Amino acid sequence: xxxxxxxxxxxxxxxxxxxxxxxxxxxxxxxxxxxxxxxxxxxxxxxxxxxxxxxxxxxxxxxxxxxxxxxxxxxxxxxxxxxxxxxxxxxxxxxxxxxxxxxxxxxxxxxxxxxxxxxxxxxxxxxxxxxxxxxxxxxxxxxxxxxxxxxxxxxxxxxxxxxxxxxxxxxxxxxxxxxxxxxxxxxxxxxxxxxxxxxxxxxxxxxxxxxxxxxxxxxxxxxxxxxxxxxxxxxxxxxxxxxxxxxxxxxxxxxxxxxxxxxxxxxxxxxxxxxxxxxxxxxxxxxxxxxxxxxxxxxxxxxxxxxxxxxxxxxxxxxxxxxxxxxxxxxxxxxxxxxxxxxxxxxxxxxxxxxxxxxxxxxxxxxxxxxxxxxxxxxxxxxxxxxxxxxxxxxxxxxxxxxxxxxxxxxxxxxxxxxxxxxxxxxxxxxxxxxxxxxxxxxxxxxxxxxxxxxx
Length: 456
What we know:
This protein has helices at 15-41, 43-50, 56-87, 90-108, 114-117, 120-148, 156-185, 187-194, 196-214, 220-227, 235-241, 243-278, 283-297, 299-311, 313-342, 354-375, 378-385, 391-407, 410-421, 429-445, and strands at 343-346, 349-352. It is mainly α. The chain starts with 14 loop residues before the first helix and ends in an 11-residue tail after the last helix.
């Protein structure tokens, strides 16, 4: 299929065409996030297979470190695939990242356990996790840029927010698949080898997504630049050579993305770890609580993305981070009180009353709401901040550096702080501090981009 004509006005695109773009982009992105986050959802169980079992806490922290390695790899993926996306096109780059992500996730299902091959097992796991991180470093920037370059200027927050839901939807799908597999197999079988099935399913999902994406047109703005011979010869060099562009990347990272990253990952992943590993609520109940909060909270990404088209990106994003900084400690303390009051210890895990489950689900929904405010408008903001010919690179580098180093490592850092201080709540001060710092920097330096036409 031929690429779209470069003669294009994004403000006059038919709604049907726009939805085709959103759906084709989102399906693949949900699958990539599913692949990336299923590792986190199963980290407690994976630790039993790939690390020595004589110290469960050390094994779990080792698995979280491997989980974090994927986040550390993301900025390098952003550099590599951002450059490719600005040179050869958005479409072809995120087709490649999809295949890399799916292949590495499927391969995790086939790794022999620690008892079979010793330290080679966690080494292979770490390598595949790094490949996942590299792939995701290219995926998000491509999907966000692709949809944004089609979206009308006055509704870019609304339409790019659908891409923002894909991270949470991928997390939700991972939880659902895990719970279904666990229920069908039984807990013992699932912990022994059944956990591999959700990873193996990735192969099927990726093949379906590849055929959907293969028939997509190239981004019209990229096609226009290509026809006019104005593509960047060296996007990475241009992104960093310009003092003005370097400044924008730093402002975007420390005035928006760092806070967004810790709020998103704390509100979903660390909440899951906190309930299951720290408060010792049973695995199934924990995941049902998180899943319920995601069902309620996911539409809010679009709500706040749409609202940013009217009141501005900056107010919504910084508002979500400020609320997180203010309410994290009381909300996590409240969760602890609920488990103490409504939980019964059975086989080293707390079983909650229905009242306790509902209250925890409400708190987790509040956490997802903060994340949706911080994350919903940020794709539109980042795309509007940078020029088309170096947009993929300029967006991907700060986004994945901040989310990979600060946001993605938040569950590990928070869990580690709790372990070394022997406190249930010391870990929560890490996201509180980074959220508050981002709000201060953002209030001073962050520009408002609402309604901007995209720069050629």
